[in-house]
Amino acid sequence: MAGEASTKPPADSEHHEAQTPPPGEPINLIAFCCNWCSYAGADLAGVSRLQYPPNVKIIRVMCTGRIEPEFLLHAFELGIDGVLVCGCHIGDCHYISGNEKAEVRINTLKKLMDMIGIDSRRLRLEWVSASEGTRFAETVKDFKEQIEKLGKNKIYIAQS
Amino acid sequence: MSAIDELIEDTGAFDCVECGKCTSVCPVAEINSEFAPRLIVVKAQAGLEGLAKEKDIWSCLTCGLCNDMCPYKVDFTEFIRGMRSEAVIHGALPVCSKGGLLQTMGRIMTSPELKQNRLSWVTDDLKVAEKGDIYFFTGCTAHFDYIFEEREIKTSGILVAAVKIMNSAGITPAVSNDEVCCGHDLNWTGNEEHFEKLMEKNLEVIKASGAKQVVFTCPEGMRTFEFDYKDIAGDLGFEVLHISELILDLIDQDKLQHKDLDGKVTFHDPCRLGRHLGIYDDPRDMIKETGAELVEMERSRNKSTCCGVSAFATCEASSKQMQIERLKEAKKTGAQKMLTFCPKCWLHFKCSTWKKFPGLEEEVDIPIEDATIFFSKTLE
Questions:
Q1: How close is the nearest chain A Cα to the Cα of B156, in Å?
Q2: Are strands B293-295 and B264-268 parallel, antiparallel or unpaired?
Q3: Tell me: the pLDDT tens digits for B189-228?
Q4: Domain for residue A97, yes or no?
Q5: Inter-chain residue contact A11 with B191, CB threshold 8 Å
Q6: Is the Cβ of B90 closer than 8 Å to some Cβ of chain A?
Q7: B315 vs A: CB within 8 A
Q8: Domain B259-379 - what CATH class?
Q9: Is residue A157 part of a domain?
Q10: A124 lies in a domain?
Q11: How far apart are CA A50 and CA B57, in angstroms?
């Protein structure tokens, strides 16, 4: 997934068919989870049979440091309502400092999002370790509620 | 006649006599020996096969050095632009620098319900209006503050400086929060559809402001209005003006009082301002007005090399090499500063001076500044 997103599809490809959804349609969330902590955390939430909103689609990446700001902005372009980025706690990164870099990038991207006109609360960074299945489920639940208050993402790129 | 044949016809590429002069001046060919502008034309004549996978059309910087040199006046940059559009239609996936973030931003701005916050750079001491005779088109200059935060330069300073200059001459420029990206980067990476949407939005905004003149600090935006918008929309109904032209006008009319600066500076011609728009003298006259001594680099004016990246379409090893060569050239002049007039040139050069090349720090160590900001210092 990550590799595909870096070679960006052209404007007229199938990826751009975001259209105005009918009212009341459920919100769409994406969670980028790092392989070493958060993806295992999400897995733990699953095997522990914890309930969390099914609106979220999880994308596994090797490290939050791999997530380019472009991936996140591109998700909003496609009409995703909220993007959650989950990684190892600071100091626990499998690659030493990938999560620190992700934090810097995401804080910068939030400022850009506010300028462009996408509410920066639609993007959230959380640290979830492999043992924190409950925390993952709680985070997703909380994030879903927050995004529901904000409403649907208003970006609909017109298609010819 | 196929689209490519039409393109070859329209841009004069048909007249190519394969003399190779384009290759001799091409900054990419200088570093990457497999690249030659001439060969791209030859390949295009052979047909569409392999166009989607063609790498060379994306390596081109569209800097226009070849256009300038060509004895048969082939419009090579336009040819490349057309080829890119065609390549995207045939399924090419452009690998843009910054992962295509700038292009995504452009596409997002076509969204009709977007509520932007693009005037966050306007501080209380600046006088701007919603309507007026002079409209100041800011483009995405302020957005670079955040996209390139790690480079420790504030490109929004260019906008602040420009408004300060206009204010001190008694002009209150119109700016708009509904303005969008000019679409330059989309247009040059093969996305004409969204480019046209951005154009319509911008022309609407400017029309609503009632402006007779539109001032630019970004040559890419100016080029896009002057050529690409006029190509599609015909007469725009307003005059397109570069900030250096405006400053010189104001000085001529005795409206702009300024002090003198000293020091020695050199000027890098951005490709869009110089070879595309043909503005060489105004920036130089403006710099001379500041009282600073202007020294020219070995390659200047229409022979000026490129900053290495254009339209954020490509950033390769050759781009870095080009930046280092250019900075070395600037350093050789003995100037204390290199001025340029393009926010993107500033960013790209900063990329090379920004602790990235251990061992080369001294050779490329020359402060870079935007000429608008430099001029605004004379007002203090």
A1: 13
A2: parallel
A3: 989 999 999 999 999 999 999 999 999 999 999 999 999 9
A4: yes
A5: yes
A6: no
A7: no
A8: alpha beta
A9: no
A10: yes
A11: 52
